[in-house]
Amino acid sequence: MSMIAAFYGGKSILITGATGFMGKVLMEKLLRTSPNLKVIYILVRPKAGQTTQQRVLQMLNSKLFEKVKEVCPNVHEKIRAIYADLNQNDFAISKEDMQELLSCTDIIFHCAATVRFDDPLRHAVQLNVTATQQLLLMASQMPKLEAFIHISTAFSNCNLKHIDEVIYPCPVEPKQLIDSMEWLDDAIIDEITPKLIGDRPNTYTYTKALGEMVVHQESGNLNIAIIRPSIVGATWQEPFPGWVDNLNGPNGLIIAAGKGFLRSIRAAPKAVADVIPVDTVVNLMLAVGWYTAVHRPKSTLIYHCISGNLNPCNWGKMGIQLLATFEKVPFERAFRRPNADFTTNAITNQYWNAVSHRAPAIIYDFYLRLTGRKPRMTKLMNRLLRTVSMLEYFVNRSWEWSTYNTEMLMAELSPEDQRVFNFDVRQLNWLEYIENYVLGVKKYLLKEDMAGVPEAKQHLRRLRNIHYLFNTALFLIAWRLLIARSQIARNVWFFIVSFCYKFLSYFRASSTLKV
């Protein structure tokens, strides 16, 4: 019997960010391994004309929860959706719901955050810092609370090369920044943002570091742990390989590569692609929740959930494996789904030229105008290139994270818990994982039919030929202009032509003599 699974039996668990990618996988695992838990509280707000309950029903009807329904048929009764808005004071939770949360909650998993790299600082502070502060205030009023698990990111201190399992101070106190957000206008905030984030690449990593400081400063007597996952990817094993439902992280990269939008990104081939499967992160979260509640460490422990230290895969290797998978299982035609939202780029280890990407987009939009359709490729390509530029910081660097606490926890688990809540990334086969990842994006995110693979292969070859043809034409035009303007270029050209002519003449003469 799993001690961790038994621990969550009868518990009332609060999950923020439950409708997000990681939150859904966390709920699925909890309900599948501990079907006798009392209730899972999730903070939800109405969206796109749906009530909170409708959003929950839509989520539970997805393929992700099929196995849960087999072991927990009354799954709908186990989830209690509470209206909340993390942008509001006290999350705009009603008095009745707040009283229930304060009096009943045993465990908190704080997963909610904005993960947008280009989020304005005001919004990033509200969701990643202020909301964390407010949730800690709520937690301090929960008499039954046993553990508070805060999900941060391994890149919260990406300005450092080596990152230990400690909370690093920020130059600005979180409380001061939170207070200043109330009276500074947006123009001033945007102006001072570069100075505030310093040598961090974006507001996301900066505010996640501030969120950790808030946890450290306002933890009080709470049993708290912080988990820092790296780039969270599709499921490895549970509930099945390759499940994914959003365009964040590597998912957009895989889509854009499979659709043939872009064939390269500027990346360091030997830099470590520190991707971690979402089910690995969730298993660690549940193990940490158990350990924190049962063993009650004297200080806040930080756990790095990363792959680079234990089972590294660099971007060059990942790019090769991605392209190999695309050859076997290509995606459908790019413009078959006009509502698709592609935001990222393909991965190889070559340096790319934005001109060679934008020019075909302009030509394709011209063709769409001629055929009476709305042009969209140029706008899409501009968004894609902008997103790629934000990712370049991470695909051209490698980091070293200490993992003493994670390894300690693994040693504390029984063999049964190590099997049921496996977070040992050393067992991960990257080739198999990437292939399942691509298949998962195709099946679960794009909803593509596997029967369309032959047509997709033909489309991919066509796109590749167009790409090569355009680059060849671009090179010849540039070379022709260079020859017209430079005597040195003309001399080089004539030398090359003369050399080739002499070589062919020599080869022809040699062949004649042999005959």
TrEMBL record:
Predominant localisation class: membrane
Domain called Fatty acyl-CoA reductase C-terminal: residue spans: 357-448
EC number: 1.2.1.84
UniProt xrefs under CDD domains: FAR-N_SDR_e, FAR_C
Keywords, sorted A to Z: Lipid biosynthesis, Lipid metabolism, Membrane, NADP, Oxidoreductase, Peroxisome, Transmembrane, Transmembrane helix
Residue stretches spanning the membrane: 466-482, 488-507
Keyword Cell membrane carried by entry: no
Biological process according to GO: long-chain fatty-acyl-CoA metabolic process; wax biosynthetic process
Any Pfam family hit: Sterile
Signal peptide range: none
GO molecular function, one term: alcohol-forming long-chain fatty acyl-CoA reductase activity
Residue span, Thioester reductase (TE) domain: 15-285
SUPFAM superfamilies: NAD(P)-binding Rossmann-fold domains
Annotated InterPro entries: FAR, FAR_C, FAR_NAD-bd, NAD(P)-bd_dom_sf
Enzyme class, first EC level, given as a word: oxidoreductase
Keyword Transport: no
Catalyzed reaction equations: tetracosanoyl-CoA + 2 NADPH + 2 H(+) = tetracosan-1-ol + 2 NADP(+) + CoA; 22-methyltricosanoyl-CoA + 2 NADPH + 2 H(+) = 22-methyltricosan-1-ol + 2 NADP(+) + CoA; triacontanoyl-CoA + 2 NADPH + 2 H(+) = triacontan-1-ol + 2 NADP(+) + CoA; 20-methylheneicosanoyl-CoA + 2 NADPH + 2 H(+) = 20-methylheneicosan-1-ol + 2 NADP(+) + CoA
Compartments where found: Peroxisome membrane
CC annotations in GO: peroxisomal membrane
UniProt topology in membrane: Single-pass membrane protein
Role, per record: Catalyzes the reduction of fatty acyl-CoA to fatty alcohols.
Family: Belongs to the fatty acyl-CoA reductase family.
The protein, known as: Fatty acyl-CoA reductase
Organism for this UniProt entry: Suricata suricatta
Lineage, opening ranks: Eukaryota, Metazoa, Chordata, Craniata, Vertebrata
